Amino acid sequence: MHIGFDISQTGSGKAGCGYYAHAMVQAMIDIAPEHSYSLLPSFGDFYFDPLMPVRNPYSGKNVSYGPRHLTRETARTFWTEKDSEKLLGNPDIIHSNNFWSPTRSTTSRLIYTFYDMGFLVDPSWTTEANRLGCFEGVFRSSVSADWIVAISEASRNHYLRVFPHFSEERIRVIYPCSRFADATIAGKRPKALEGVPAEGFLLNVGTIEPRKNQRRLTEAYALYLALGGSPMPLVLAGGKGWLMEDFQRHLSELGIADHVLMTGYVTDEELIWLYRNCYANLYPSLFEGFGLPVLEGMQFGAPTLTTTSSSVPEVTGDAAILLDPKDIDGWAHAMLRLTTNRGERDALAAAAIQQAARFEWRRSASALLQLYEEALASPKRRTIE
């Protein structure tokens, strides 16, 4: 089988979507080296990384780099050509992973990874340009894709609600997994936490942006302190995203600026240390396609308080405390309960490790390869609808 696989988001600045593509292709190459893999560092024109590696970073006997475009304009020209499939060597599979979707797949089976449509749930969570670009790609997938890979049951159900014309038999859930292969790594303390003892802080991981809900989290933390909670700091580990320019003023108005440590971007080593050493991992996101920070924290034994929203309960099972992400009072009292009950905290840590072990990349990659086989054995979608 000849597989054309989009790796456009797997560069040095990769986030959730990029980690999914990176880990999935590595696992496929490892368990099925007999296939031919054309890895596509430039895929469409919605997402473009000019700093993608010049040389193929993935090793394997049958692994090659596809066309790497140096500008968004040349990428756009290539991917809108009628003979783009031919220029790629007519792969059996073309797999999109960055929201953009081709529309000219005539013989290749087009597989499209669907993450989420948070931009439809609340347009204020993102910018207009990102919202329009993401929706255009998802909409085109509903017309052109032969199969959809959804990263959770919640995402699958949302896709079918928005696009009821798409055949539900052709959308498959294949879960992401942690990008950290070794759960025994100790990690490295971030400089921002010098002097803060292990298990002496509460943690939130994620870009500071409206959808991640840090405003309500910090309001709940302020209430927790007012209720007499232990004054352990709240650590926000993540860069600043969009629409949060006044967040520092928000902390000052709550009177908790001195209790909140904002690390900015952290390395993987630092993130592992934070997960392993936090008293609890707090993740009140309003909407998730999956919720990788929850799974990764659980992998390292982080006791978890998280959201009842969207896909996250699929990740946690019964191994976390689930709360309405808008219930500030409920979050404050849950923090207070956990910080005064060491036994419950330690039980959650043990349950978290056990639950996280259910998610494994080789299992997910095997499921994806099976889907490819099914796609090749089935007619292209446009011939049967």
UniProtKB/TrEMBL annotation:
SUPFAM superfamilies assigned to the protein according to its UniProt record, in alphabetical order: UDP-Glycosyltransferase/glycogen phosphorylase
UniProt cross-references to InterPro entries, sorted A to Z: Glyco_trans_1 (IPR001296), Glyco_trans_4-like_N (IPR028098)
Glycosyltransferase subfamily 4-like N-terminal domain residues: 60-176
Superkingdom of origin organism: Bacteria
Keywords, alphabetical: Transferase
Protein name: Glycosyltransferase
Span of domain Glycosyl transferase family: 200-354
Phylogenetic placement of the source organism: Bacteria, Pseudomonadati, Pseudomonadota, Betaproteobacteria, Burkholderiales
Gene3D superfamilies per UniProt: Glycogen Phosphorylase B (3.40.50.2000)
